[in-house]
Amino acid sequence: MSAQAQVRRKTVTKIRSAKGKDALVCLTAYSAPIAALVDEVSDLILVGDSTGMVCHGLENTVPVTLDMMILHGQAVMRGSQRAVVVVDMPFGSYEESPEIAYRNASRIMQETGCTAIKLEGGAHMAETIAFLVKRGIPVMAHIGLTPQAVHAMGGYKTSGRCRTEWAEVEKDALAIAEAGAFSVVLEGMAEPLAAKLTGLIDIPTIGIGASAHCDGQILVTDDLLGLTPRVPSFVKKYADLDGVIRDAVTQYATEVKDRSFPALEHTYALKKEA
Ligand code: KIV
Predict the structure, then answer these.
(1) Which parts of the chain have pLDDT scores under 70?
(2) Residue 271 needs a FRET pair 20 to 30 A away by CA distance; which of 28, 169, 236, 256 works?
(3) Best mutation site among 208, 219, 225 for ligand 1, i.e. most ligand atoms within 8 A of its Cβ?
(4) What is the set of active-site residues?
């Protein structure tokens, strides 16, 4: 038997039971090495379809495919041991019918080994969420600013900044909680509305551009590391890795040109002959 202690991965039950307790730490990851780093501090790792912009240089998340999400999901599962891993269902893979959503969600779960899936939408997705949950697929919901609706909404629109919008968003939150989602991402939402929803529903709310009163927070890891050129105003940059990388590759280029790299210690000498 391996001397290494077996690490048990957290479960969605554990996430759900954190409602109203310690704040849940959530981060995105798309690769094994970043997953290994964020796993040390995270309750939940999201393999977000934000990978479309962050890793693939796409304009938005709409062109992201199921195959892309599965590849990233597999890498994140290999890199992490502790956190619940949630894989985003990409645009077009779940909206048509609960049955199609089930087929694609089960493929994601079988081929990645992830814990749960996430999909965007409120009351209109409740039937699909209930269908998946009843058949053994844990679902994280996502309401407020839903990036996959970028074309339908004519851009990225915050929600709930006028009180007249609140009733609709409250209906969404109640419907998905009732349908059996184990948690919900509240994105780009007026702070008092996000705080109110957190008190209104019995599943953990995970805020991004929402409220410190949410049951947990999530950020795109590349954004907080300073690796993405344009970030929304709700992002706090905890590092400037962009600058660190630029300095390192500039120094490398200088040393290649002036032939100070590779030095002798970076080369192979001949073996001593017997
Ligand atoms: O795709 C993503 O990274 C997300 C988070 C921003 C919540 O959905």
Answers:
(1) 1-5
(2) 256
(3) 208
(4) 187
